[in-house]
C-alpha cells in the first residue's frame, strides 16, 4: 500500500511539472542600435520582477548592426539567422531591433514594457506541453555538461540548449551608441540545437566561448520548440 502511495505521489509530481506554464522572452538586440538600450533595460527588470522558474528571458545579439562601426562582442550570425526564421514565420519582409518574440508565437517592440507584462500575464495562464528535468550539471573551465530528461510528447520537436551571461557592462566607442556605457543582461553566448526525434533524454556538453570572462555569472537554459518555432516547454538554472 505504501508503495502504491509513493508511485501515485511521483505521478502527481510529473503531471504538475507538465502543467507548469513557461514564458520564453527572446529579445533580438545590438550594442550598435541606439533604440536597443531601453529594451535591454526592460528585459533586465522583467527578470528581476518575475518568477524565474516560469519566465525565461534571453537576449540574442544580432550581427547586422556591426557594419556601422561598432562590432558587438556578443553578436553572432547564428542569432541573426534565428531572427530571420521568425521573420519567415511572421511573414515579415524585414527584421528589426529591438524585437521581442514571446513563446515563438508573436512579436512586438522590445522596449514596450507595458505590453510585454500584459502578454506575459496572459501566457502564464497557459500550460506547457513539455517539462525538462536537469541532472548532473557540471561547469568546468571551458565547458558545461549535463543530462536532461523530457516529459510529454516529443514528436516533431527539438531542444535548444543556451548558455547565457546574466549581465555585463560595455564601453561602446563607435556606432550609434558611441561614448556610452551599456548595461546588457540575459546575453546568449552560445547555442546548440538537438532534434529529439524519439529520444526524450540524453547528455550534452556546451563549450564556453572566449567572450565569457571569469567574473561572469552564467545560466543554462533549455527550451523545447515544435516545427513551427513555438515554445512547448523550458527550464533554466544558474551555474
TrEMBL record:
Keywords: Signal. It comes from Tenacibaculum platacis. This is DUF1223 domain-containing protein. Residues 1-17 form the signal peptide. InterPro entries: DUF1223 (IPR010634), Thioredoxin-like_sf (IPR036249).
Amino acid at each position: 500500500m505504501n508503495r502504491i502511495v509513493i508511485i501515485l505521489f511521483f505521478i502527481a509530481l510529473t503531471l504538475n511539472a507538465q502543467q507548469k506554464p513557461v514564458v520564453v522572452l527572446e529579445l533580438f538586440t545590438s550594442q550598435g542600435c541606439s533604440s536597443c538600450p531601453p529594451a535591454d533595460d526592460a528585459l533586465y527588470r522583467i527578470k528581476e520582477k518575475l518568477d524565474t522558474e516560469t519566465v525565461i528571458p534571453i537576449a540574442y545579439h544580432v550581427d547586422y548592426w556591426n557594419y556601422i562601426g561598432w562590432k558587438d562582442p556578443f553578436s553572432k550570425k547564428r542569432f541573426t539567422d534565428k531572427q530571420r526564421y521568425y521573420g519567415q514565420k511572421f511573414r515579415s519582409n524585414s527584421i528589426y531591433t529591438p524585437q521581442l518574440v514571446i513563446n515563438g508565437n508573436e512579436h512586438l517592440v522590445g522596449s514596450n514594457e507595458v505590453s510585454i507584462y500584459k502578454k506575459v500575464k496572459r501566457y502564464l495562464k497557459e500550460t506547457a506541453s513539455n517539462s525538462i528535468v536537469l541532472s548532473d550539471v557540471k561547469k568546468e573551465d571551458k565547458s558545461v555538461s549535463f543530462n536532461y530528461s523530457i516529459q510529454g510528447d516529443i514528436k516533431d520537436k527539438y531542444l535548444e540548449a543556451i548558455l547565457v551571461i546574466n549581465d555585463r557592462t560595455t564601453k561602446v566607442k563607435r556606432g550609434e551608441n558611441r561614448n556610452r556605457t551599456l548595461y546588457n543582461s540575459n546575453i546568449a553566448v552560445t547555442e546548440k540545437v538537438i532534434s529529439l526525434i524519439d529520444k526524450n533524454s540524453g547528455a550534452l556538453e556546451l563549450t564556453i566561448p572566449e567572450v565569457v570572462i571569469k567574473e561572469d555569472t552564467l545560466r543554462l537554459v533549455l527550451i523545447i520548440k515544435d516545427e513551427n518555432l513555438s515554445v512547448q516547454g523550458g527550464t533554466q538554472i544558474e551555474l
